[in-house]
Amino acid sequence: MKVLVTGGAGYIGSHMIYSLIDQKKSVVSIDNLSTGNRNILPKSIKLKYLNVGAGNDVTEFLIKEDIKTVIHFAADVIVSESIENPIKYYTNNTLNTINFFKSCKDAAVKNIIFSSTAAVYGSNKKHILSEDMETNPISPYGQSKLFSEKILSDICKADKIKFLIFRYFNVAGSDPKKRTGQISPNATHLIKVACETALGKRDKISIFGDDYNTKDGTCIRDYIHVWDLVDAHIKGIEYLEKGGVSKILNCGYGSGYSVIEVLDALEKIIGKPLKRNIAERRLGDPPIVIADNTKILKTLNWVPHYNNIEKIVSDALVWEEKNN
């Protein structure tokens, strides 16, 4: 059965495509290349240059390719930018996604896997977050994704489409085979920025706040290796195609590292210190965000293989060296 990946020329989307190829699955992609790069994908992959919200054009492509399973990654994902430009996020992440879901419905797609985020939980008093907790996003990015979650759930109930909503925690690392990785020229992800600093692309690494109520004063995050993340999606496809019921699932390891612990891990790998700068807190940054991953482990029989911060950082650094 052929799989459609939206945003396939982006960071997570490109890893998904390579993983599907490795699994001998047929895959095509839609991407408007607003942030993606065609060059990180195999030339053999069919990539349709199109906005996912383009309505009839998307519907026709889905029908022509006989798509029954969709993985929807395409989105804007920078929290700070969403605060500065909320209209952009509600337009792309919610409005375009509504139009895309309508295209899926009209094209008789059977299964949808939606890329969501832990940002939907907001600043929760509890630090281990489970899927049944209250959602209260503190950024337009998180809110735009939560709107899309609810819309997808309602559409699928009405039209008997099955879905999985994956709420990602902090995705990092790169393909162990070095075929793709993080490509954003203006990255805000801690590990990519730290790797750029290690390679001299940046003069220093900023730590946004060292006065949080954590063990060392810096934010703690659940970092998940991108290859484990896309493996969860492979398991998700199999789950839905075998008749699994629709669910919302956290994608994380259930443990976290502080900003300082991440930087220490990188310094251990490169054998020298990074120049660090303490900066003001960023808007929308909760102090601790860790996944309760009980549900995904049980539902998909998912077994992470890269749950090691040095492995995550090392793979990100190797890609950054190659990309350099």
Question: Topology, please?
Answer:
Blueprint: E1 3-6, H1 11-22, E2 27-31, E3 46-49, H2 56-64, E4 69-72, H3 79-84, H4 86-106, E5 111-117, E6 128-129, H5 140-159, E7 162-168, E8 170-172, H6 190-198, E9 205-208, E10 220-221, E11 223-225, H7 226-241, E12 247-251, E13 257-258, H8 259-270, E14 276-279, E15 288-291, H9 294-300, H10 309-323
Parallel strand pairs: 1-2, 1-4, 2-3, 4-5, 5-7, 6-15, 7-12, 8-11, 9-14, 10-15
Antiparallel strand pairs: 10-13
What does this structure look like?
This protein is α/β, with parallel strands linked by helices and 324 residues long. Helix content is 39%, strand content 19%. It is built from 10 helices and 15 strands. It has helices at 11-22, 56-64, 79-84, 86-106, 140-159, 190-198, 226-241, 259-270, 294-300, 309-323; strands spanning 3-6, 27-31, 46-49, 69-72, 111-117, 128-129, 162-168, 170-172, 205-208, 220-221, 223-225, 247-251, 257-258, 276-279, 288-291. The protein has a 7-stranded parallel beta sheet, sandwiched between helices. Strands 6-15-10-13 form a 4-stranded mixed beta sheet. Helix 6 runs parallel beside helix 8 (259-270) and helix 6 packs across helix 10 (309-323). The longest helix has 21 residues, at 86-106. The protein is globular, with a radius of gyration of 19 Å. The mean pLDDT is 95.
